[in-house]
Amino acid sequence: MAESNPDIILKVVSGTNYGVGPLKAQRDDVLGRSLLSETNAVKNQKVYTYYNIITQGIRYPIGLLYCEKWLYLICSQTSTQPLCKLNSIRNSLA
Fold first, then answer.
1. d(C-alpha 43, C-alpha 36), whole Å
2. E-assigned strand segments in the chain
3. What is the Cα–Cα distance from 40 to 71, expressed in whole angstroms?
4. Cα 22 from Cα 84, distance rounded (Å)
């Protein structure tokens, strides 16, 4: 991942201990990795975490909509062309 120098990193967190603590711990773990320290995402603190449960089972469509909304908001803060970046992300996930 470090070679691709991402502008944004999304980290999926699994488990049953829901709350802000585990999300923050995973984010801090990514931010503290020396291998990723020179990426744009880490330099600009654009590392986001979310629980995998929002994209499982019957919640899957709603979870995808939330992810798309988050990505749009993140991309609009990161780029002058957020829709182009979001479409690029969307195409890479398809």
1. 9
2. 9-13, 47-51
3. 16
4. 32
Amino acid sitting at position 51: Y
Query: Domain boundaries in the chain?
Result: 2-93
Instruction: Look up the pTM and report it.
Output: 0.68
Q: Which residues contact 78 (CB under 8 A, 6 or more apart)?
A: 7, 8, 44, 46, 85
pLDDT at 80 over 70: no
Q: What is the pLDDT of residues 10-67, one digit of tens each?
A: 888 888 888 889 989 999 999 999 999 999 889 989 888 888 887 788 888 888 888 7
